[in-house]
Amino acid sequence: MSHGSKNLFPSLKALDNAKEVQLITFLISMPINRKRYIMDTLQIISISGQIFAILNPIGVIPTFLSLTQGMDPDKRHRVVRHSILTVIFLTLSLAVGGSLILEFFRVSVFSLQIGGGILLMVLAVDMLSGLPRTKGVEAGEEIAIVPIATPLLVGPGTITTVIVLSKTVPMLYLLVSILIVAFLAYLLLRYSEVLTDILGINGIRAISRFMAIIIAAFAAQLLYGGLTGWLTSWGLI
């Protein structure tokens, strides 16, 4: 056996050892990565649920059908598409620029949580009592943007929620959640007639009331977080 062959075996053995170490490291990291993936997914689902509840596209369906009554299907679909694109633009802008807005007005996160919590609680009570988000809405050529995209979908509650989340959750999770909710809102409005035939107006209203309960719970969480932050900053707790 040549001298070169003798030097080759240690190299191959070292390579095998390195591969074994990589394999063991990969196997050890698999449960950790899986757990992290599950936690990330659950957080995105939680954020999406909060945004979906306050956006409440289900509660908008009766007004949407009323405003688009008599439209041909193609025109109605264009209205849905333009509305959702406007919603995406507004919410993404708020998510990215939320910090700048707070800094410009010199508003702390704790103050925003308290103010937003009060606002969302009032909106939740209004939704539970059956009051509409907007009153005296008239159908027009620009209903895709006003009033459907805003204020029906992106109203004060949505604005507050997105800005608060932009300061309290990872930005990537927030952006992904916004896109998920926008897609769900598109499907609900796109097939609103089918959904109404299945659930009926009363069924849609019942789901909308349930969304109001979720909003009230989120509002209570914001109030608790804001008050706790205030008291902690003052050294009271």
Q: Helices and strands: which structural class?
A: mainly alpha
Largest sheet: none
Helix content: over 70%
Helix count equals 8
Shape: globular
Distance between the termini: 78 Å
Number of strands: 0
Order of helices and strands: HHHHHHHH
Strand content: under 5%
Mean pLDDT: 83
How many separate domains make up the residues? 1
- Uncertain runs are 134-138
Any overview of this molecule?
- With 237 residues, the chain is mainly alpha-helical.
- The protein has one domain (3-233).
- 85% of the residues lie in helices and 0% in strands.
- The chain is globular.
- Mean pLDDT is 83; it is low at 134-138.
Outline of this structure?
This protein is 85% helix and 0% strand.
What distinguishing features does this structure have?
237 residues; mainly alpha
List the helices and strands and how they pair.
Elements: H1 3-55, H2 57-67, H3 73-105, H4 109-128, H5 144-153, H6 156-168, H7 171-190, H8 192-233
